[in-house]
Specification:
- The complex is a heterodimer of chains A (about 230) and B (about 220).
- Chain A has 11 helices and no strands.
- Chain A is mainly α and about 230 residues long.
- Chain A is elongated.
- With about 220 residues, chain B is mainly α.
- Chain B has a domain of about 150 residues: Tetracycline Repressor, domain 2.
- The longest helix of chain B is centred in the first third of the chain and has 23 residues.
- Chain B is elongated.
- Classes of the chains: A mainly alpha (about 230), B mainly alpha (about 220).
């Protein structure tokens, strides 16, 4: 969206056509960014059912027509917002968890990074952990896919462990579900503030089945291997 | 409530219209029971949020007026049915868990839970899924009753759990209930009871660590 005055001004500066194209792309990128941020915030505040295209467009300061330039409909915007949140969270995770750490410490650092992400963007966490499950099949499928990859990540612990073949088959599924359960409950009853204090509890839940509680807790004890 | 079969809601029949010689109280109680049964079927079919009073009274085969004689709104009706289901589950677990050794007790309780859910998957979805979808007071009530169920699985008497043990317990019941829901959604209600050995070991593991849990789980299953 450009003012005519700007357009006329541009004829004077004689910018080459390619640059104008580039500008348009930047504008589109900024619009998309604002639309996704608005979607995220509205879903967290009002749930998927209470989030309309009109509201998203208004919050993002674009017209409904612009909304349709970017997304075919509401569900597509929901899924795009979820995908962006997941990509950002996983990107941060990859940055903050050194790949050369022993596996139990990777799990601890992964949980630490996750909690920090939630503390930094509580709305994003509410969308991903709570509202995504009430927003229709496409969004639910996105949640389930992330759930499954978390299960796969945690299952790596078995490969490093000679006693692991005897572990219950559904251990990782139950553990990931249990951690999601604790996070949801905390977000719904207390909120994101201070959520980082959950780290010892989450490490205990995640690692006790592999290491026993004492060793799991040693990993988060002050003066421990942390 | 197909499980057990002796619950008051089992096999509810619509009273014949006109003079049937039943007292007002008996009629009222029959209506109430039909409504409680109806709300379970209606919310599982349509989802809690989308369920209308019209769908609910259709499932219960009562009039709209009768509905409002018993309940102020959908949530009140849902909660009344919810309390009844939870009480049934809790009583069944208590009865099954009347065993001296903790590993045997946990196994019997989990077997009972899975049997109830496998026998009536609608009840399972109502209890584990729709109560969370309802949000607000209903979801808070559900979390509280899962904590009660967690206490039944505990080795030591209540009151001894510290913050860590409590979180582990909550993660366990939340995790197990999610696991059951995932199996139900995948259409695996009939094989739900196959989860028993896994769940038994999971519960023992979260209290004892893996090696001791494996040993006890196998001894108890034998």
């Amino acid at each position: 969206m450009q003012y005519l005055s700007e357009r006329l001004h541009a004829t004077n500066t004689g910018k080459p056509r390619g640059e104008k194209e580039a500008n348009r792309e930047t504008v589109a990128g900024q619009q998309r960014h604002r639309l996704l941020a608005a979607t995220e915030q509205l879903i967290a505040e009002r749930g998927c059912a209470g989030t309309s295209i009109e509201r998203i467009a208004k919050q993002a300061r674009v017209s409904s027509i612009t909304f349709y330039d970017h997304f075919a409909g509401k569900e597509e915007a929901f899924v795009a917002a979820f995908d962006e949140a997941a990509t950002a969270t996983l990107g941060r995770l990859a940055e903050e968890v050194p790949a050369d750490l022993p596996w139990p410490e990777q799990v601890r650092e992964g949980l630490r990074s996750l909690l920090a992400t939630i503390a930094d963007s509580p709305e994003r966490a509410t969308m991903c952990l709570i509202e995504s499950q009430k927003g229709g099949p496409a969004l639910l499928a996105r949640y389930e896919a992330q759930f499954d990859s978390a299960v796969a990540l945690l299952s790596e612990g078995r490969l490093r462990d000679e006693a692991a073949p005897g572990l219950p088959e559904s251990l990782e599924e139950t553990t990931v579900a249990g951690i999601a359960w604790l996070l949801r409950e905390q977000l719904e009853t207390v909120g994101a503030e201070g959520i980082e204090e959950m780290l010892p509890r989450l490490v205990d839940v995640a690692l006790t089945p592999y290491l026993g509680s004492a060793e799991a807790l040693h990993l988060v004890a002050p003066g421990g291997k942390a | 409530m197909a499980a057990g079969g002796e619950e008051p809601t089992a096999g509810v029949v619509r009273l014949p219209p006109g003079r049937h010689g039943l007292s007002r109280d008996a009629v009222s109680e029959s209506q109430r029971q039909r409504l409680l049964n109806g709300v379970v079927d209606a919310v599982v079919e349509h989802g809690y949020n989308a369920t209308t009073i019209a769908q609910l009274i259709e499932a219960a085969a009562v009039s709209r007026r009768t509905f409002y004689e018993h309940f102020a709104d959908k949530e009140e009706c849902f909660l009344a049915a919810y309390e009844m289901v939870v009480a049934h589950v809790r009583d069944s677990l208590r009865e099954a868990g009347d065993l001296p050794a903790w590993p045997d007790r946990v196994r019997a309780e989990l077997a009972t839970l899975l049997r109830i859910f496998a026998a009536d998957p609608t009840i399972a979805r109502f209890l584990l899924l729709e109560s969370l979808a309802a949000g607000g007071e209903v979801a808070a009530r559900h979390r509280a009753s899962l904590r009660c169920i967690a206490e039944l699985l505990r080795p030591a008497p209540p009151g001894t759990a510290d913050e860590l043990a409590e979180a582990r317990e909550q993660a366990l019941v939340g995790g197990v209930s999610t696991l059951i829901v995932r199996r139900l959604k995948a259409g695996e209600a009939s094989s739900l009871e196959d989860l028993l050995p896994d769940l038994h070991e999971l519960v023992l593991t979260s209290y004892l660590g893996r090696r001791e849990a494996q040993r006890l789980a196998r001894a108890s299953a034998a």
